[in-house]
Amino acid sequence: MNLTLLGTGSADGWPNPHCACGSCSRARADGVLRGQTSALLDGRLLLDCGPETPQAAQRAGLDLTRLRHVLVTHAHPDHCSPAFLLFRSWVSREPLDVLGPPDVVEQARPWVAPDSPVRFLPVRAGDRHRLDDAYDVRVLAARHGGPGACVLYDVAGPGGRLLYATDTGPLPEATVAALRDARLDVLLLEETFGDHTGHGTDHLDLPSFAEQLRRLRRVGAVTDRTEVVAVHLSHRNPAPAELARRLADWGARAVPDGTTLTAPPPPSPVVCDRDAASPRPTADEGDGSSGGRTLVLGGARSGKSREAERILAVRDGVTYVATAYPAEHDGEWGERVRRHRARRPEGWTTLETLDLVPLLSGTGGPLLVDCLTLWLTRVMDRHDAWDDAAWEEAAREAVHAEVDALVAAWRATRRRAVAVSNEVGTGVVPDSASGRRFRDEMGRLNALLAAETEDVRWCAAGRVLAL
Fold first, then answer.
1. Quick check: is 340 catalytic?
2. Average pLDDT of the chain?
3. Is 266's pLDDT higher than 70?
4. The sheet that has 349-352: what strands, in order across it?
5. pTM for the whole thing?
6. What confidence score (pLDDT) does residue 226 get?
7. Are 39 and 62 a contacting pair, CB within 8 Å?
8. Which of 144, 196, 235, 340 is catalytic?
């Protein structure tokens, strides 16, 4: 497979030339310029053709002289700019297939002469076409506009299989079912709106992008060998480095316009890249078998819980281990717990317990522990460790024994594990001995766990730094 991403941006590109938001300004300063999304396969098959596409091919060092098939998803002008057919007719009489929904064919047909060698093929979800005896094209339903207005393309060729999935909101059930056991080599999946989830459009944002990956992994369409690339990116996304960091946790990435994908990359272990914003995790199929530990630290309202949830957002079978006190007698705390539960992906299981060692020592899917600060608080409660006399007599040894057992289980676990913990030692020094004791014990626990963790992250003001 020789697949060149001619464009990876949304209709207005990224950065939008009229915009001075932080995302656009950072992208502009970094020289990251994205045009309208399209892709060229083996020089012969073009996926979408907006007004920028033909020149984008030349900027990528390619030409369209061998082009024989154009697959258009829908009639919006950033995906369907049929004037290229006229320009092509001035220099070429080679045959060309143009596939797209009926609206696309209606827009494109007037741009060619009656005796043109261009063949128009109106398509609908469920159709299948064999092109050049080389490409098997399945037409799948998108969720974008009215019924039949937009489609997706599942293309199998001599070098592999790809799904071109833009524009669309959450994938229709029929599309996911049609991709069962597809084991795609490449997935180009739109991700338009970043953290802006209130857009009300038939597009994906970061949370719904993760959800689609989870659904596709569940049916075997995406595997640990699938190259997942986010496309149709807009300035609603975080700045490029932060977007790359977030996508990496899901086994996905954003690539510059003009990037050529030649083969699926081999799976890589979880390693810490000192030059990257985050570790590069192994993507797997959600069973937790690959292991790997992540410790997410930060202060109150720093974004640490959201970061931990994002890391596992594409995974099935996640057990959310809540260590909080029961919320029945505290309305404000109960509301916090309710909001946390509401934002967890469907299919996650919540377990309220302090018994972390058996969970870490066992087998099964990923674990998300939130949080170790409340765990330590309740362990100290259990041993009356807030009392000065009890601390000096027996509580210190009892608390340290539980901490050491937790650290040993964390070190030995084979499960994918993510834990959240507070850094409580960066503020005002507590005015009581018991407060200072808790601060010190929390720092000790965090340091011991961090020493046994390959991926430690610090959250501040919603931003994340790999330690």
1. yes
2. 92
3. no
4. 349-352, 319-322, 367-370, 417-422, 293-298, 455-460, 463-466
5. 0.89
6. 97
7. no
8. 340
